[in-house]
Amino acid sequence: MGRDVIVACDFSSKEEVFKFLDKFEGKKPFVKIGMELFYAEGPEIVREIKKRGHKIFLDLKLHDIPNTVKKSMSVLSNLDVDITNLHAGGTKRMMEAALEGLTRADGTRPLLIAVTQLTSTDQESMENDLLIKEPIDKVVMHYAKNAADAGLDGVVCSPLEAGKVHETCGEKFLTITPGVRFADGDIGDQKRVMTPAEAKKIGSDYIVVGRPITAAADPVAAYERCLAEFVG
Ligand code: C5P
Question: Would the pTM of this model clear 0.90, i.e. be above it?
Fold first, then answer.
């Protein structure tokens, strides 16, 4: 899979997501299904969107003891998604167990991506709540390195960190970057943003774009603008 735009379908019902996807007619954007939609509609929503011909990033961010994550990943691999993820904070052992669980009997598996530190965690909350005293960018790179050592395929990170992640973990280690906005668009609640063109320049492999597409007056035009800027 090459560079692509992943549309964050942050809806809470099947009706809303299908109403949105129907606008794309023949086009099949790569879709991110998060906790909101998955918990509302269950695994069937994944099968239905897949059946319509979309690639799927199932963003459930697993974090538990290695055995539980392994077994859960094994169940998720039956859903035939293209990318799924977990928290790197669950340790290298948990990530290795996840990879084992995700790998099907024929050796194939979805790509497995780690979340390092959530962008909602800042230096202050990391130090005070988690008692992690190192600088946050050092922690993010350390977690990315752990994910690479465990055999994972990449990390979710800010587009601003994508270049450094590639330097640390290799060019082939994937960077999936949310926090993307058009130069003339609303930032909303995202703090550190980049345009699709800037994310391309810095070497992101996939951009995850939600509201700039889902809340646009013309979502298909917004999606195509993302593709034109990011994929070219
Ligand atoms: O609407 P917006 O473009 O901000 O959506 C970004 C998507 O990426 C949302 O689904 C959000 O949960 C997700 N995300 C994020 N920041 C992270 C990890 C995931 O914005 N660090």
Answer: yes
